[in-house]
Design a protein that fits this description.
The structure holds 2 protein chains of 2 kinds. Chain A is of the alpha+beta class. Helices cover about 45% and strands about 20% of the residues of chain A. In chain A, strands 1-2-3 form a 3-stranded antiparallel β-sheet. In chain A, a hairpin with a 4-residue loop joins β1 and β2. In chain A, α1 crosses α2. Chain A starts with a helix and ends with a helix. By secondary structure, chain B is α/β, with parallel strands linked by helices. Helices cover about 35% and strands about 15% of the residues of chain B. Chain B is built from 12 helices and 13 strands. In chain B, the strands form 3 sheets. Chain B has a 7-stranded mixed β-sheet, with helices on both faces. In chain B, strands 9-10-13-12 form a 4-stranded antiparallel β-sheet, covered by helices on one side. In chain B, strands 1-11 form a two-stranded parallel sheet. The longest helix of chain B has about 40 residues. In chain B, about 50% of the residues are buried. The interface between A and B is medium-sized, with 34 and 36 residues. Chain A: Belongs to the NifU family. Chain A: InterPro entries: ISCU, NIF_FeS_clus_asmbl_NifU_N. Chain A: This is Iron-sulfur cluster assembly scaffold protein IscU. Chain A: Pfam families: NifU_N. Chain A: Keywords: Iron, Iron-sulfur, Metal-binding.
Chain lengths: ~140, ~425
């Protein structure tokens, strides 16, 4: 299958590859997928406790080119966003941006899940209730 | 096995001598036609165009003569006689004709067929179809090295068994089954033995007498011949095998396969067999050296790599390696100027990795990390160096990106993690 230029670009020049200290309070880690499925994404965020803005994001991905591109793009998009803005990122946005073919939509879903899992982990660590966050958003 | 089709051209200025891109190293899928084969075929597209079944004029005679020569060439390569060669459109048809034709012909005697889980889909899908028609099929498992256990085969054969179909050499992992022993066992039990020998014929010595083979499928395009032509060897004595025809219309090919013969294709198949017979021994030695050289390079440069399939019973031109913690498709994407295949199936709707690799007991994760290198007649040492260096480079880069590799390096047991499977 032919990938879009954007997928190829993210594959060749992945953004924000790396590891944040998962024990730090301001860091949220999301690990989604499974080796058996051929895709594992780890997305990490570092959140400013004052502003709830994601100041840094890192990823590592085991998976196909689309999975790598989806997670790379996800780190770019969450950086500078508040937690609630990041939660609003949907997999269809990723599909559109990367022009993913139908068989690769799975990768975008995984990236969305990775963002949510990282935020979930951060909230758990910082005892931020789900409802409170939703209330802020409204 | 799948591949992605991204092509990024590289400046040829930086390439080592003897390397031009893209490099073809997927010779199990198909082989480029040998120019000598094409030369042999060309007259039969033009001047010598007769129908080999036209018995009453010179055009037909010339075509028939060419076909009979090809029959001899093919028979010679596998230790058969010319009369035992039936032409088909390729190995898929040969396998269909063998399995369906034998099942139908010997239905009175029994309805049981034995095959193995690592067969090509041309055999497996045909068996599934036969199951729907009331046949019973036993799919033998393979051991971790890809070989079947002869004791399993012995146990599987019962008084209703009419046919055993075991492939000679596997297309993914290159493992060569103990064909002569399997054939001997079948003959002792009075069971017909068919082998899909597509990957073996012309690559390693195949002899239907020594190997006790009754029916054998082969294909032109896997041995540097044309696509769209294959053959089925059908034993004529000890035992005489009968096959019920699956295509009707004129009774060509001893009534087993009707249809006007593809004369240029058949001439090409014959020429390909003759060349293979002459050059096989030296070529096998050369390919094995290249294969072992590449394997050693990978093992020296990278950790967590391993070979799939028993290397002592192996096609010389096959290397199936797992680069653990790297996903096969992303690896292919990084070497898109090289044609190889991946055991991963990330492009398929099911996301299921290779059933052959899984049959060896490999976890899905490792199967997703596997690459098949297929060396052929036209691959050079310079290409092997280029390919292995590039693969090492991309694997290293992708492992920097791999959360699994990082976790393993930190001493985390990946099997203890509760994965959120998708």
């Amino acid at each position: 299958m032919a990938y879009s230029d954007k997928v190829v670009d993210h594959y060749n020049h992945p953004r924000n590859v790396g590891t944040l200290d998962k024990t730090a309070a301001e860091v949220g880690t999301g690990l989604v997928g499974a080796p058996e499925c051929g895709d594992v994404m780890r997305l990490q965020i570092r959140v400013n406790p004052e502003t709830n803005v994601i100041e840094d994001a890192k990823f590592k991905t085991f998976g196909c080119g689309s999975a790598i591109a989806s997670s790379s793009l996800a780190t770019e998009w969450v950086k500078g966003k508040t937690i609630d803005e990041a939660l609003a990122i949907s997999n269809t946005d990723i599909v559109k941006e990367l022009a993913l073919p139908p068989v690769k939509i799975h990768c975008s879903v995984l990236a969305e899940d990775a963002i949510r899992a990282a935020i979930g982990d951060w909230k758990k660590k910082n005892k931020v209730a789900e409802t409170a966050a939703v209330a802020v958003a409204h | 096995m799948s591949n992605n089709g991204v092509v990024i051209s590289e400046s040829s200025a930086s390439l080592p001598a003897g390397v031009t891109l893209p490099i073809y190293m997927d010779n199990h899928a198909t082989t480029p036609m040998d120019p000598r084969v094409l030369d042999a075929m060309l007259p039969y597209f033009g001047k010598v165009f007769g129908n080999a079944a036209s018995r009453n004029h010179v055009f037909g005679w010339e075509a028939e003569q060419a076909v009979e020569k090809a029959r001899e060439q093919i028979a010679k390569l596998i230790g058969a006689t010319a009369k035992e060669i039936i032409f088909t459109s390729g190995a898929t048809e040969s396998n269909n004709l063998a399995l369906k034709g034998i099942a139908e012909m010997y239905r009175e005697r029994g309805n049981h067929i034995v095959t193995q889980v690592t067969e090509h889909k041309a055999v497996l899908d045909t068996c599934k179809k036969l199951e729907k028609q009331g046949y019973r099929v036993t799919y033998l498992p393979v051991q971790a090295d890809g070989l079947i256990d002869l004791e399993d085969l012995k146990r599987a054969i019962d008084d209703k068994t009419i046919l055993v179909s075991i492939m000679y050499a596997n297309n993914e992992i290159g493992v060569i089954q103990p064909i002569a022993e399997i054939g001997k066992l079948c003959h002792e039990k009075g069971v017909i033995f068919h082998t899909d020998a597509v990957q073996a014929v012309g690559k390693i010595p195949v002899d239907v007498q020594k190997d006790n083979i009754d029916v054998l499928s082969l294909s032109g395009h896997k041995i540097y011949g044309p696509k769209g032509v294959g053959a089925l060897y059908v034993r004529r004595r000890n035992p005489r095998v009968q096959i019920s025809e699956q295509i009707n219309g004129g009774g060509h090919e001893r009534g087993m396969r009707s249809g006007t013969l593809n004369v240029p294709g058949i001439v090409g198949l014959g020429a390909a067999c003759e060349i293979a017979g002459q050059e096989m021994e030296a070529e096998a030695k050369r390919e094995k050296e290249l294969r072992d050289y590449m394997k050693a390079k990978f093992e020296k440069a990278l950790d967590y790599v391993h070979v799939n399939g028993n290397m002592d019973h192996h096609l010389p031109g096959n290397l199936n390696m797992s680069f653990v913690y790297v996903e096969g498709e992303s690896l292919l994407m990084g070497i898109n100027d090289i044609a190889v295949s991946s055991g991963s199936a990330c492009t398929s709707a099911t996301l299921e990795p290779s059933y052959v690799l899984k049959a060896l007991g490999l976890g899905d994760d490792v199967a997703h990390s596997s690459i098949r290198f297929g060396f052929g007649r036209f691959n050079t040492k310079a290409e092997v160096d280029y390919v292995s260096d590039k693969v090492i480079n991309v694997v290293s880069k992708l492992r920097e990106l791999s959360p699994l590799y990082e976790m393993v390096k930190e001493g985390i047991d990946l099997t203890k993690i509760e994965w959120a499977a998708h």
